[in-house]
Design brief:
By secondary structure, the protein is an all-alpha fold. It is built from 23 helices and four strands.
């Protein structure tokens, strides 16, 4: 029984967590499942200490809005012939200024996220935070998102990871990061008050353009709730976009001047009036509440339960999860009205999730986390913390699309990607030196999952650092 619990402890820390730190497998062995479930019990939210001192998303966005107003003023001056060639293009200068303003926030957020992952004793909980952040992906390759993606994770996702999915969904979709990333802040209905004012001025083709933007509506349906095969139509997308027209942010100038800069703002004048039908259900006109009602119903759809169950099962258990596992997760999730701790408990209690045979190939982020946790290495400088993720192809908050980072082996095990892992592993092992026992480190990091073949290879290595590099690149360490 002790040996079996030690094996389960190794699986708990590597498959469900972010990798074992020295002594963790032994500590978890008494009750591996209980160790996991204890991390996801409902309770008051307490922000990790590493987040103290970070600038709020509201303040970052307010600064961005102020700079954009300055940029727009410069554009108007250029149009009026007021450019100063001796000082270069002022618009380009202001764009560079925005990046200079926002980049330090991104570095601070990503560094804090990494430190939490490396130091936490609740790595299952932290993995879930990052799972949901990837599910509701906001990619920083869009300039406005550079300082907001981490803020959304900290402000909308972390507080709701052990609550109900409906509350998590609302918090994310109304966070300024999501609103601006998917361009909903200026989405206005064709029959809205604003559209009427523009039509009366007769300048639809001029600087003031009014229309629906379907980006947010589409991604909520396709990615965040029902899934691509969830039974919605293009008409549902268009109608839902009308439902959430006016979901915006405060601040800006001219017609968007009202509200606190950088805070979610429902703009009644931009909202498409009238009752609307989404997925066959009619929603009476109720302003902001109309969109909230649609979100609540989407959170309760059986298709949403199946979509989330499939993604969670794929992330934790197998690239192609079994229908039995998906149903095992989806049924209680739907039955409990989207209670997330119940969903996690169903995963933990599914016996098939505890097979000793590794089924998941670690993404670059998972690999770096587990390697640095195994050796208790936490670089202090933000750029040192973040460099491995850039090198290995998975920088924080930069999946490149709203779909998030992929979660299958074939997306990460290419020859070039493996060569970069070897290079980084060798460099890390070289910095650690020859004073550590790779065999001891292997037992601490992967426990009973260590094979006799790998152990023999470690013992035959020409040096201690070479043995550490071999450990990091071993099949047991590369998979979970």
């Amino acid at each position: 029984m002790i040996a079996r619990n030690t094996t389960l402890a190794a699986l708990a820390t590597t498959r469900f967590g972010l990798g074992a730190r020295p002594g963790e497998i032994v500590a978890v062995a008494a009750d591996p499942r209980g160790w996991l479930l204890g991390q996801v019990r409902p309770g008051p939210y307490a922000a990790p200490a590493e987040l103290a001192g970070l600038t709020s998303g509201q303040a970052i966005l307010a600064e961005f809005i102020a700079t954009r107003q300055e940029r727009n003023a410069e554009k108007r001056n250029l149009s009026a012939g007021a450019s100063d060639p001796a000082n270069g293009d002022p618009v380009k200068q202001l764009v560079a200024t925005v990046r200079q303003q926002v980049l330090p926030h991104y570095l601070a957020q990503a560094a804090a996220r990494t430190r939490i992952a490396l130091a936490t004793t609740a790595s299952f909980h932290e993995r879930l935070v990052q799972f949901w952040s990837n599910h509701f992906a906001v990619s920083v390759d869009k300039p406005i998102a550079l300082g907001l993606a981490g803020a959304m994770e900290n402000e909308a996702i972390r507080p709701h990871v052990t609550g109900r999915f409906r509350d998590l969904l609302v918090a994310v979709e109304t966070h300024p990061a999501m609103i601006t990333y998917l361009d909903n802040e200026r989405s206005a209905g064709p029959h809205s008050e604003l559209a009427g004012r523009v039509a009366r001025r007769g300048d639809q083709g001029g600087a003031t353009r009014v229309g629906l933007n379907e980006n947010l509506a589409r991604e909520i349906l396709e990615l965040h709730t029902l899934g691509v095969d969830g039974g919605y139509t293009q008409q549902d997308v268009t109608t839902f976009a009308a439902v959430i027209s006016g979901w915006s942010i405060g601040g800006d100038n001219a017609r968007l001047a009202q509200g606190t800069p950088g805070v979610f703002q429902f703009r009644e004048a931009m909202h498409e009036p009238g009752a609307k039908t989404v997925l066959g259900k009619r929603y009476a006109e109720s302003g902001l509440a109309q969109g909230m009602a649609v979100l609540e119903d989407l959170a309760r759809q059986p298709a949403t339960a199946r979509h989330l169950a499939t993604k969670l099962a794929r992330h934790f258990v197998a690239d192609e999860p079994s229908p039995a596992l998906i149903e095992h997760l989806a049924h209680p999730f739907h039955a409990t009205d989207g209670d997330l701790p119940s969903l996690y408990a169903s995963l933990v209690h599914f016996d098939g999730a505890w097979s000793a045979a590794p089924a998941k190939f670690k993404t670059p982020q998972e690999f770096v986390y587990s390697a640095l946790r195994a050796f208790e290495v936490i670089p202090q400088a933000p750029r040192q913390l973040l460099a491995p993720f850039e090198l290995l192809g998975q920088p924080h908050y930069k999946p490149g699309s709203p779909a998030g980072w992929p979660d299958r082996t074939s997306d990460w095990d290419g020859a070039d990607a493996l060569m970069k892992r070897i290079e980084w592993s060798s460099a890390l092992a070289g910095r650690l030196g020859d004073g550590r026992s790779a065999a001891d480190a292997a037992h601490q990091a992967i426990g009973d999952l260590l094979s006799a073949h790998t152990l023999a290879a470690l013992n035959r290595a020409a040096s201690g650092s070479q043995a550490l590099a071999l450990l990091l690149m071993s099949p047991e360490f590369q998979r979970r």
